[in-house]
Amino acid sequence: MDSLQIVPELEVGLNHIIHMCLASHLKIEVEIPLISCRRQAAMFSRQTKDLVQARQSLCDRGFDFLAEFLLIECRDNKGEYRNCCSSRLPGDSWHNYGEAASITLLKSSNSSRGMQILAAAVKHAGLVWGGLWSPDLQNHVQLRNFRSPLSRLSPSEARKLLEEVGSL
Question: Angle at Cα 123 formed by Cα 18 and Cα 96, nearest 5°?
Fold first, then answer.
């Protein structure tokens, strides 16, 4: 499998944010967690019934290649589904596509002014926030202005993009 990689547009946007924050003396930490579909499935946190329904929903929409990750990764040695740490299905997080990053304000910059500067830098860079923003948390930014990749991408489009970044 190819190594995971972020898309060039995200890298350009993140570099812009870093430079704007540095110019404003705002200290940030940027983390680009590229998450493979296999790892996303392992992180998926639903009850057994929900996992079965989620797998069926993926199959019904033509995403069989993503549904298989739930069978591979979401069972422990006893055949039980395990609790993990994400509500996003495999292929339904922009981190799977190399199009998302997390930005944290470091303690000395952790303020409402810091959040205003960061928000302006993200907007100026052409990226969008995804999720709740807080000075204390990792703040999610992404390229596209919609939450769910699988609500907008066809199965063939999703497969192509996931293969391009090495996430399948």
Answer: 75
- Rounded mean pLDDT, 35-43: 85
Helix (H) or strand (E) holding 140: strand 139-142
What SS3 state is found at 64?
A: helix
Choose among 89, 85, 100, 93: nearest CA to 43: 85
Q: Which two tokens stand for residue 49?
A: 């019934």
- The fraction of the chain above a pLDDT of 90, given in percent, is 44
The pTM assigned to this predicted structure is 0.81
Residues 60-64 have a mean pLDDT of 96
Q: What is the C-alpha to C-alpha distance for residues 14 and 11, in angstroms, rounded to an integer?
A: 5
Residue among 159, 161, 140 nearest 98 (CA)? 161
CA end-to-end distance (rounded Å), the chain: 8
Task: List residues bridging with 140 in a β-sheet.
Answer: 102
Domains of the chain by start residue, with CATH: 1-35+95-155+164-168 (3.30.1380.10), 36-92 (no CATH)
| 120 vs 166: CA distance, rounded Å | 32
Note the pLDDT tens digit of each residue in 137-164.
778 899 998 888 999 999 999 999 999 8
